[in-house]
Every structure is written in structure tokens, then in C-alpha cells.
């Protein structure tokens, strides 16, 4: 309860505070033993943290590594800070300016995140382009030019051989003077593999030596961090630097991985970096996570050139707490990031992304059947990939394989390069492959996929080329694509999760795009040769442009990406922003929903949730349903045969007792009770705050020794005159810990933990303390109920 100190406060009841009513009259003067702090300070345990100090001592209210934050505590601390700034702003003009700067700091952080992540994405794109081409040859006029840039400036390119120009030479031609022949082919093959091995070796070595956290996609860990878990160093400066450099090396090595997932990690590192410049964010873990949610949106915005898709991705896939304010800021960060990337123009096509396409033909209702079949394929591929990849990663964790990460990367790169080089569709970078598969066959295309047999009498506008019979080049391309499909499906399973930065978006899209293009060509040829069939009769006249195989590739890519990640809304928006195809939303939606349904039939978790589970991160998924009929008393600790709960009493514990308790146990906090006999709950104190308070008191306050009594009440206990000076620690006590009764259903408890982001919750009966439930206990109980190993939740 709270008692108001001044007559002015009398009768003014503030929200979430109660008046103590005695004999129906409000008490408007302090009572003995009742706190005379302000109601807010009392509620939150905030304010100055020790009576003997003018300033709060540093680090109090912070968290240890691998611990969960207390969202409620962070929220109330921010409310206190805001209230203090607002009241001060009325005192002077300078304080008003400071309060305005504080209000604008969020937008400034978003601007900085957008600028830096956009710049880094542009640099990564340019570097990847150059280094991928470096495996095949070099530009003689300027070695830092990629193949395409090198031939841009040349006047000697012909229409048929537009990729060949005298300034660009393959390695064999440069070394031996022969561009063709078996010897040149073998030399080019050998150097391609050598460059790939060099790039991947550099990448894995840099990750191992300088930043072990820079490996993988980063999205499972970011989801866990955004749910309130602390992983120190995961978003640090070294991780940012090494991830950016090694991402270029890993993608350039030709491994089956993408840069999109790691770009989200890079953007979140930028967000964390700029949070440290503003105390509003650096000192409050809850506020910091709002910035990181927006940074994730900026990451997807630059990865796909899809600002709106980025905001929806952050909302649907990674964020745990996403208030409306964060939605606007995410939108702004994504906008600035996309604008910065557009200014750099890494692809030279004035687009934000490599595979921008424009189709000229509408789709027809009958085509929904193959689109839905592609959705089914995407769902099945997603399930197969998740199960196989998780099994392989578990094997890596539990066997000797995990001890040799460098060797594993070298082996997988070697196999990938040796198998990829002979097939032109796997030799090139995956983004270029997707770009070619998405493309519509215009009159100016020189790709094998566009080798159709032309009708010599055809005289039509360039845009609207009718369906034509496939030529030998198309059939040849289909064989190569079928081999590329099998290769990509198998090799991606072993690549994702190695100790290098590796994204999953691009390989998943490549698998879907290959399957989609094959289906598209099949439907196109059926429509051409059998236009009198009933299904084609209504919409496909002879000589018309009916089927666009590139659209099938796009739908297949969306289906496979949806099957692996289980995204729906954000996926469709990302895909249509990627391709500029607004009228193709319905096929994309049909494929995305089908792939999710099919994949969910085999298991609810997407790839990121599966990796969170594999690594044992304490992540309470909002989408999981808890349907078991257990009670809080079944889950709380101590259990029946356990030692009693470690508690502190309000005014009889000594400093020595507290230090012994901290030394002998590893609990994160201790309930405070009136006495061990009554077990009446007073509040809860964090272990870290307690340690820091006693350490600071010994240094700064005279007379505090091991036999000093620690008291959490407002007034000091009555002690003999010979006793040393007592130590008052009421200010670090949380007087409103979250409590439930022992008969609360676990379904409700799980919901409370999810929605309020609790760290722990105390169990009482009629005000008496019975036990405690932590987030880890909830996760273990849920694992047990699903017949999984409860000990797999390994972090605090």
C-alpha cells in the first residue's frame, strides 16, 4: 500500500496506486514503519539506490551475461526517467531543450542505423560481385572491376557475345594465352576451386580467431535477444566488423548460402552500436530492444530492397515486443536504409535488388493449380530441409565433427566448387541464377533458357512474344537445371549452420525458382502443343503469349522460402517488392499459404525456431499453445524433496549471512519475508543488486562490517548499542514482485510470462510465500509436457 505524505496529495488517487483506508478515512501522514518515499519510487524500487549515496551507484539494475531481462522493471524505470525529464523541463529553458533532444534521440538513432546499414549493404554487394567474378578471371583495364563493369566500357562487345570483351580475360587465357581447349578448361576449373577454398578458409579463420559470434545466420539469436535474453558481445563492434568482411568472403566462395539473414545481424549490430551513444537506450535493456526491432527491419530492407517487407518481417518473424511507436521508427529506418542503398546503386540498374523483373502477361485462373502444386513442393522441401539440417547440426554438436570447424568448411567448399563448376547454372552466384530464372524471355535475351524456335513470319511488338516451341537450348537447360536442383537441395542442408556467416533466404529461393521455372516451361509447352485441351481453350489462343515461366519461378521461390521460414504476410510483400509485380499477389499468396499449411502439417517450427530449440535458448514462443492441465504448485520450486527456498528476512539477516547465501547459491534473486516463521512476503531483491550494494557500502559507508544487520524496512530495527551500524537496503527492494497463487493454472502462468516478459514469478497462498517459478522452469515444464528433454534448456 502507499500512504501520501502531504495534505495536497490527499484524495488524489493516481493510477495503479491504492489508498490505505483506515476507518474509511484516508491517512495523509506518514505512519511509523511505512515508507515515506514517493509512490513511484516505492513501487519500482527506483530512485536513489542507497541512502548514503547522492548518486545511484553504477551497474545496479543491469544484468549478467546469459540472463533474461525483467521487462516490467525496465518499463517502470523508463517511465520514471520520462517523468523526471518532464518535470525538470518546466524548470528552465535548457532543461526543455534537453527534454526535446531526448524525445528526438529515437529518430536520430533510426537515421544513423539506416545510413550505416545501407552503406554496409552497398559495399557488401559491390565486393561480392567483384570477388565472385575474380574466381573466373580478371579485368585488365582495372582489376577492381567485376566482369560486367569491365565490359560496360568496352566498344568491342557484340550482341551475341555480350559477356566477352578483350579487357576481361579468364585466368587460363591470361596465363597460357589460350582461351579454349581442354587445357584451358582444366586450369580455369582448378583456379576456380582454389579461389573458393581460399575465400572460405579466410572467412572461417577470421570468425574463429576474432569473433566466434559472427557465424551462422544470426536470426535465431536475434529473436532470442529481442525476447529479452542477454548475449554479451553478440551485437558488438568486433562482431559487426568481422561479420561484414567474412560475409563477403563466404558468399564469394560460391557456397550455397545467402547474405540476407546475416544482413539482419549486421543491421542489429549497427543498432546496438548507436544505442551506446544515448543513455536512454544504453541503460535500459527494454528500450534497446525496441531499437533492435527497427534495425532488423532496416536489415531486410537493404537485403531485398523491400522497406515495407522489412517492417513486416520484423513484426511477423523476429520481434517479441512491437509497440506502435516501434512500427513508425522501423518504417523510417527501413526507408533511410533503402534510400542509402539506392544512392550507392550497387547493381548499376537503378534498382535496389538484382532480380527486379517486369512481366507483360496477366495470369489466368487455371494457373492456380500449378501455383498451388509449387506451394505443396515448397512445404515439403521446407520440412525435409529443417529435419535434415537439424539432424546434421545435432550430429555436429554431439560428435567429433564439431571440433574441426575449419576442416568442415574447407571440405564442404571443396565439394561445392568441384561439383558446381561443370554446370553453368551452379557456377554463377546464386543471386544471378535467381535473376535469370525470374526473367521473362524478351527478344533481346541471349540465355539458353530463351532458345525457342521462332516463327519466321512473326511480326509482333517486342514485348508480346507469343508462346513458341522449345528449342534444343531449352531442353539442354532443363537437364542442367534438374541437376542444379538436386545439387542445391543436398548441399544447402550441410552448408547452413557451419562456422561462417550463412543466410538461408537465397538458397531456399534458388531451389524454388529452379523448380518453378521447370514447371513453368512444362506448362508453357503443354499450352503450345495442346491449346485445344479444355483447360487451355478459354485463355490460350494459338499465337498468343499465355504462360510466363519466370512467374512460376517467382512463385516457386516464395513457396520454398515460406516452407523453410513459415513467413506469410511479410514473404508476399517482400516478393512483390522484389519483383515489382503487384498483379501477381494472388499467386504469391496462394503459394505462401499452401506451403505453410503443408509444412505445418509435419511440424509447427520454422528453421529459426528449430535452431533456437537446438541451442537451448530460453525463448517462449508466442505461437506455441499450452493445453495441459497442470497448476503453478506442480512447477514451482522447491519441490517436495528439495531444500527449502533461500530467502532473506526483512530485519534480522547480517551482511555475513547475505554474503554466505550469495556464495553458496547461484540464484538470480531472493524473496524477502517478514520472518522465517511467518513467511509473509515483503518483496524481491536481485542477486546482482545485492552484491553491488554491499560492495559499495563497504567502500563508502563507515562502520559496515560482516556482523552489521541488513534491513529492508523504512525504520532501523531496535538493536543494542554495542551492535555495529546496520545497513539499509530498502531502495534495491522490488516491493511489487509478480505473484500468483499455488492453484493458478499453468496455462495462465505461461501466458503471463509471455505477455509481460517476466523473469520470475513468486507463488503464495494467503500472503505466505510457498515457492518461485522462473522462465527456465516454465520452459522445462513445457519441454517435459511435449516429451522432450527438459535439460536441453541450458542457459540461465
Question: What is the average of the pLDDT values?
Answer: 84
Low-pLDDT residue intervals, each spanning 5 or more residues: 1-55
The best one-word shape is elongated
Query: What about the largest sheet?
Result: 3 strands, mixed
Number of helices: 29
What is the helical fraction, as a range of percent?
40-55%
Quaternary class:
single chain
Radius of gyration: 32 Å
- Total strands: the figure is 13
The largest beta-sheet arranges its strands as 5-7-8
Which structural class matches the secondary elements? Answer: mainly alpha
Strand content: 5-15%
First-to-last CA distance: 33 Å
What does this structure look like?
With 796 residues, this protein is mostly helical. 53% of the residues lie in helices and 6% in strands. It has 29 helices and 13 strands. The strands form 5 sheets. Strands 5-7-8 form a 3-stranded mixed sheet. A 3-stranded mixed sheet has the order 6-9-10. A hairpin with a 2-residue loop joins strand 12 and strand 13 (768-774). Helix 15 (405-420) runs antiparallel to helix 18 (472-495). The protein is elongated and about 110 Å long. The model is unreliable at 1-55 (pLDDT under 50). Keywords: Antiport, ATP-binding, CBS domain, Chloride, Endosome, Ion transport, Membrane, Nucleotide-binding, Repeat, Transmembrane, Transmembrane helix, Transport.
Amino acid at each position: 500500500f502507499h500512504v501520501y505524505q502531504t495534505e495536497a496529495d490527499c484524495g488524489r488517487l493516481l493510477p495503479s496506486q491504492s489508498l490505505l483506508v483506515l476507518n474509511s478515512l484516508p491517512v495523509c501522514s506518514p505512519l511509523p514503519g511505512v515508507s515515506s518515499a514517493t509512490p513511484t519510487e516505492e513501487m519500482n524500487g527506483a530512485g536513489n539506490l542507497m541512502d548514503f549515496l547522492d548518486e545511484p551507484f553504477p551497474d545496479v539494475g543491469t544484468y549478467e551475461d546469459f540472463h533474461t531481462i525483467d521487462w516490467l522493471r525496465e518499463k517502470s524505470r523508463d517511465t520514471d526517467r520520462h517523468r523526471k525529464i518532464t518535470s525538470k523541463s518546466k524548470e528552465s529553458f535548457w532543461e526543455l531543450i534537453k527534454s526535446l533532444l531526448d524525445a528526438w534521440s529515437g529518430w536520430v538513432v533510426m537515421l544513423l542505423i539506416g545510413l550505416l546499414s545501407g552503406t554496409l549493404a552497398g559495399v557488401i554487394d559491390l565486393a561480392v560481385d567483384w570477388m565472385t567474378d575474380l574466381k573466373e578471371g580478371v579485368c585488365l583495364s582495372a582489376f577492381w572491376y567485376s566482369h560486367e563493369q569491365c565490359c560496360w566500357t568496352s566498344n568491342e562487345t557484340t550482341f551475341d557475345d555480350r559477356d566477352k570483351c578483350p579487357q576481361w580475360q579468364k585466368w587460363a587465357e591470361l596465363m597460357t594465352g589460350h582461351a579454349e581447349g581442354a587445357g584451358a578448361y582444366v586450369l580455369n576449373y582448378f583456379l576456380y576451386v582454389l579461389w573458393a577454398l581460399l575465400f572460405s578458409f579466410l572467412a572461417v579463420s577470421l570468425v574463429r580467431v576474432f569473433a566466434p559470434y559472427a557465424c551462422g545466420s544470426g536470426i535465431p539469436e536475434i529473436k532470442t535477444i529481442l525476447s529479452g535474453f542477454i548475449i554479451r558481445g553478440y551485437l558488438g563492434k568486433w562482431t559487426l566488423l568481422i561479420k561484414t568482411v567474412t560475409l563477403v568472403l563466404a558468399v564469394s566462395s560460391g557456397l550455397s548460402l545467402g547474405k540476407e539473414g546475416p544482413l539482419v545481424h549486421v543491421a542489429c549490430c549497427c543498432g546496438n552500436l548507436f544505442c551506446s551513444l544515448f543513455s536512454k537506450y544504453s541503460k535500459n535493456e527494454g528500450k534497446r530492444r525496441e531499437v533492435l526491432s527497427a534495425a532488423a527491419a532496416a536489415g531486410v530492407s537493404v537485403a531485398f530492397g523491400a522497406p515495407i517487407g522489412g517492417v513486416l518481417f520484423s513484426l511477423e518473424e523476429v520481434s517479441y515486443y512491437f509497440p506502435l511507436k516501434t512500427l513508425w521508427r522501423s518504417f523510417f529506418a527501413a526507408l533511410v536504409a533503402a534510400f542509402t542503398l539506392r544512392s550507392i546503386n550497387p547493381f548499376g540498374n537503378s534498382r535496389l535488388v538484382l532480380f527486379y523483373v517486369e512481366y507483360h502477361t496477366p495470369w489466368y485462373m487455371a494457373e492456380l493449380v500449378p501455383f498451388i502444386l509449387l506451394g505443396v513442393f515448397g512445404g515439403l522441401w521446407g520440412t525435409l530441409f529443417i529435419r535434415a539440417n537439424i539432424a546434421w547440426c545435432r550430429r555436429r554438436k554431439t560428435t567429433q565433427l564439431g571440433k574441426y570447424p575449419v576442416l568442415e568448411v574447407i571440405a564442404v567448399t571443396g565439394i561445392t566448387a568441384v561439383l558446381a563448376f561443370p554446370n553453368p547454372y551452379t557456377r554463377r552466384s546464386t543471386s544471378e541464377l535467381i535473376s535469370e530464372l525470374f526473367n521473362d524471355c524478351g527478344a533481346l535475351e541471349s540465355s539458353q533458357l530463351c532458345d525457342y524456335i521462332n516463327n519466321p513470319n512473326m511480326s509482333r511488338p517486342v514485348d508480346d512474344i507469343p508462346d513458341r516451341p522449345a528449342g534444343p537450348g531449352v531442353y539442354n537447360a532443363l537437364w542442367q537445371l534438374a541437376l542444379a536442383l538436386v545439387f542445391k537441395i543436398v548441399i544447402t542442408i550441410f552448408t547452413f549452420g557451419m562456422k561462417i556467416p550463412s543466410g538461408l533466404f537465397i538458397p531456399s529461393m534458388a531451389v524454388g525458382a529452379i523448380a518453378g521455372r521447370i514447371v513453368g516451361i512444362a506448362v508453357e509447352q503443354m499450352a503450345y502443343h495442346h491449346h485445344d485441351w479444355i483447360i487451355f481453350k478459354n485463355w490460350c489462343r494459338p499465337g498468343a503469349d499465355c504462360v510466363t515461366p519466370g512467374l512460376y519461378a517467382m512463385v516457386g521461390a516464395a513457396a520454398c522460402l515460406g516452407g523453410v521460414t513459415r513467413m506469410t504476410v511479410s514473404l508476399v510483400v517482400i516478393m512483390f517488392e522484389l519483383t515489382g509485380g503487384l498483379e501477381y499477389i494472388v499467386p504469391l499468396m496462394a503459394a505462401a499459404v499452401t506451403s505453410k499449411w503443408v509444412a505445418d502439417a509435419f511440424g509447427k517450427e520454422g528453421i529459426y525456431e528449430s535452431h533456437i530449440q537446438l541451442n537451448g535458448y530460453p525463448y517462449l514462443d508466442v505461437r506455441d499453445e499450452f493445453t495441459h492441465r497442470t497448476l503453478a504448485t506442480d512447477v514451482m520450486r522447491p519441490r517436495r524433496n528439495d531444500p527449502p527456498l533461500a530467502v532473506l528476512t526483512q530485519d534480522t539477516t547480517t551482511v555475513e549471512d547475505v554474503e554466505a547465501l550469495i556464495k553458496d547459491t547461484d540464484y538470480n534473486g531472493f524473496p524477502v519475508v517478514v520472518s522465517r516463521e511467518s513467511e509473509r512476503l515483503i518483496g524481491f531483491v536481485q542477486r546482482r543488486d545485492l552484491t553491488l550494494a554491499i560492495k559499495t557500502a563497504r567502500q563508502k559507508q563507515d562502520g559496515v562490517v560482516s556482523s552489521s544487520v541488513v534491513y529492508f524496512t523504512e525504520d532501523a530495527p531496535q538493536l543494542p548499542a554495542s551492535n555495529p551500524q546496520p545497513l539499509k537496503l530498502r531502495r534495491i527492494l522490488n516491493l511489487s514482485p509478480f505473484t500468483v497463487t499455488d492453484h493458478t493454472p499453468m496455462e495462465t502462468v505461461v501466458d503471463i510470462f509471455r505477455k509481460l516478459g517476466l523473469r520470475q514469478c513468486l507463488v503464495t497462498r494467503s500472503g505466505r510465500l510457498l515457492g518461485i517459478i522462473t522462465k527456465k522452469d516454465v520452459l522445462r515444464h513445457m519441454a517435459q509436457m511435449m516429451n522432450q528433454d527438459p535439460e536441453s534448456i541450458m542457459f540461465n
